[in-house]
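User: I've been trying to design a sequence by hand for this structure and keep getting stuck. Would you show me what you'd pick, starting by listing the structure so we're on the same page?

Assistant: Good idea, let's start from the same input. This is the structure you sent:
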């Protein structure tokens, strides 16, 4: 539990010691980010950008390797045709444009940062995310939960 800069270690110790209305898992490894081990991953901007760009680049590179391998012989081309439905599903699932948009929490409104190099599909995905956040009243609900948690902490400190 000695990962990160001092502020990250302090936040980790505090989160582990408090009675949060959520399941705080602590640090995870980079290879667990996309595995569904946790629902939310919080990182500072630089490390998050590296993780995101690495995942996107790796997915793109694997796709290029797979395309090249499927063109090597008539048998591999036949296999590609037979597996095309599965490849299409995989391509859609791994398309970073479909999950485009990082949210900024702690603001008094909804802010979704879209990838600068995205296209119209990626931008539409970010707009959809912002719309879903607004429809679910995420900001007021978070504010209410944080206020209740703050009062709970104050009551615990006094008692």
């Amino acid at each position: 539990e000695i990962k990160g800069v001092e502020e990250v270690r302090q936040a980790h110790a505090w989160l582990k010691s408090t009675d949060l209305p959520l399941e705080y898992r602590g640090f995870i490894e980079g290879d667990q980010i996309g595995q569904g081990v946790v629902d939310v991953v919080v990182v500072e901007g630089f490390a998050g950008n590296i993780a995101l760009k690495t995942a996107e680049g790796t997915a793109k590179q694997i796709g290029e390797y797979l395309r090249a391998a499927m063109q090597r012989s008539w048998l591999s081309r036949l296999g590609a045709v037979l597996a095309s439905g599965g490849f299409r599903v995989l391509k859609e699932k791994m398309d970073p444009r479909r999950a485009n948009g990082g949210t900024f929490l702690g603001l008094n409104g909804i802010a979704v940062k879209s990838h600068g190099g995205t296209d119209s599909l990626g931008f539409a995905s970010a707009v959809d995310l912002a719309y879903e956040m607004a429809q679910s009243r995420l900001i007021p609900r978070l504010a209410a939960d944080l206020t209740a948690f703050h009062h709970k902490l104050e009551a615990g400190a006094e008692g």
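That's my pick for every position. To get oriented when you compare it with your attempt: The radius of gyration is 21 Å. Helices lie at 6-17, 45-70, 74-82, 84-94, 120-135, 138-158.
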